[in-house]
Amino acid sequence: MWKFLVRRIVLGLVIVILCSLIVYSVIRCLPTSYMEKIARERAAGTQGMKSYSQWLEELNNIYHMDGSILGGFYAWLSEVAQGNFGESWVYQVPVVQKYNEVIWWSVLMNVITLIVEIFISIPLGIVAARKQYSRTDYAVTVFALACISLPTFFLATILKYVFAVRLGWLPLYGLSGRWYQTGTVWYKIGDILYHLVLPVLTLATLSIGGLMRYTRTNMLEVLNADYIRTARAKGLPEKVVINKHAFRNTLIPLVSYMSYLLPSMFGGAMITEELFQIPGIGRISYQAMTIGDIPFTMFYTLFLTVLTQVSLILADIMYAVVDPRVRVN
Hints:
By secondary structure, the protein is mainly α.
């Protein structure tokens, strides 16, 4: 097991480096030079202290944009190995500092979404599997397919129009209300949760379809197994057969599936956060990338790549934890 984990970690590091090189190469090959844009802005703001050409030369030296792609990537990777991701061009603070300021809003929203998703999709998937080819099964399947097919911007717009504009039950956007600063601690917590209802509802609706179908498929495989027929032949109650024997074995693939949610949890929901103006890592990264903030873009893509590799390794470990056959093999 340890040899397998070491191989997976080494392979993950190689993939992270290659993905970072691809992103860096794409940024270097863009037809628009954001260095020239920043050099013009700083030259205009310094009132003649430094010219445009001086700022451009200085910025190219700082960010290693004046050499080859491989040379610049090696210089960037050397600084990253020391924990230096540079300063954000948009937010004028170190990239890591800006990330630490906004990441926990994305984590909070995605943790709540994950809890809602689990409590809705897994029971519905089990019910659909138990009543295969019934009206309930067809209804759950249609609902799951609708959730998978809906675009984020379309669903978010519909929910905002119905619950915020027409009914006025929920806020349209933002993370706090008018009286947030003057409220008590409990009022602030309630106000934040109140503003997160629509974003969480959007994310949960879009994500429960996949987990619901996954649960149904794996539950059907387990229910058709020989040991389930044996348990029923012994006269065990149906609830015991489903909850104790069938569901326990369904957890094996579900654990690995849920480990893939790690990148979305810490990587943020870019479209949803932007539509609801939630100041999480997704929205901040989207704004940085559209403006051409190369240091923040490189950090964010590297961060997502690392999260993806960590989730894959965790999935392998979880397989071994919940399934003794994997440890034996």
